[in-house]
Amino acid sequence: MKICGKKPKFVDNGFKHPYCSRSCARSVPGGGTNPTACALRGCRATGKPAFANFCSDAHAREGVKQGRVDGCEHCKVQPRSMGSLCIPCDRASRGGPRLRELHPDGATFKALRAQFLSEWEPSKQTPSFEKVYEVLLPQDTRARHEQFRARNPAFQEIRSFHSSQCICDLGVKEPTLCNFKSCGICSIIKSSFKSFAFGVPSNQGRFGDGIYSYRNPRLADRFATSCTSSPYRVMIAGDVCVEPEQCDENQTGDEESLFAQSAEAIIPVYVIMYAK
Q: For the purposes of burial, counting CB atoms within 10 Å of the CB of 62, is it exposed (0-12), middle (13-18) or buried (19 or more)?
């Protein structure tokens, strides 16, 4: 009613639009000229760039759900607006790494839980799988990993697990990364394996300095320690590019660690919270 003074503003799914109709929007000088209709079929409201040409956040999500537009590569619920990402995820990726909790009923959570728990021996106590956080990495970190893969086409990418000491209460309240230099988990995630606890630049092992992880999370568990105030043990699930001979379990066995010489070869993908 504020624009034309005749009809009330159009309300859809609880969202109040600035105009009563597209004809009303056209009458506004400047920004209201020649508005584009909402991209969701049947909606007469005006689409907005902030919602990828849908009229509201609700209609943007519905558009992805109906398969009318591609969903964001990260959140999967918002339409793509910035390359393969939605606006919020693109904004988040330009900062430091962030964590986003996965829903226990989701397919990714269930698949990761099944993989994780299948590696524990039946004769021993199986840990309880509590939470999973997806690691949202900055674009430049992902780009470095993709460039490493492109430079090494013979390498294969494997899901692996890495543990370290976690001295903060990660996962107890909010999924926030701490700034303690002695916290190995947060240091690894924030640096994407470029820095470990106390600023150490690499691990030491049978192949020398580099980054060591395991196919089997049960083997990585021996390196997991946590602060006394947290009920969780913490493990990072990552994707690591390794030489073909490391991929042959018949030769190496799953007891052997996977070795990456540089941080560009491995990225943190998920953070697993579990208890024993």
A: middle
Residues ≥6 apart with Cβ < 8 Å to 137: 93, 97, 192, 267, 268
Q: How much is the pTM?
A: 0.69
Answer yes or no: are the C-beta atoms of 241 and 235 closer than 8 Å. no
Q: Which residues pair with 100 in a beta bridge?
A: 134
**CA–CA separation, 213 and 270 (whole Å):** 14
Q: Which of 158, 156, 159, 164 is nearest to 220 (CA)?
A: 164
Beta-carbon count within 10 A of 145 CB:
21
The tokens 């105030």 sit on which residue? 229
Residues 143/202, Cβ–Cβ less than 8 Å: no
| Cβ atoms of 16 and 22 closer than 8 Å | no
Cβ–Cβ under 8 Å, residues 186 and 193: no
Q: 248-261 pLDDT, tens per residue?
A: 765 555 567 899 99
